[in-house]
Write a structure and sequence with these properties.
Blueprint: H1 4-12, H2 22-53, H3 59-90
Length: about 90
């Protein structure tokens, strides 16, 4: 597992790591954080789906899984809206 993580982070690194100005550096950091957040959201969706599938019909477990799926979708919407707002403000 320790050998896989550096390889995974290598592929998630931005393509232009050598930005010359501060706005370029901040943009690259933002892209990296967004990639990590989207990856985490996908993982959380899979976990919530697994919880729902293994709930065995228990209404409280199903409700917890639905709440988690709703939270993940809300988080993805916030990420998308942040990108849209940053593009509108930044020009």
């Amino acid at each position: 597992m320790r050998k896989i993580l550096p390889i995974l982070f290598f592929f998630l690194l931005p393509t232009d790591c050598f930005a010359q100005d501060i706005s370029g550096v901040l943009g690259e950091i933002g892209d990296f954080i967004r990639a990590i957040a989207i990856g985490a959201a996908v993982l959380m969706l899979v976990i919530a789906g697994f919880k729902w599938m293994t709930s065995a019909g228990d209404p409280s477990k199903i409700s917890d899984a639905k709440d988690q799926i709703f939270a993940v979708i809300l988080g993805l919407l916030i990420i998308a809206l942040a990108e849209i707002i940053a593009a509108l403000v930044g020009g």
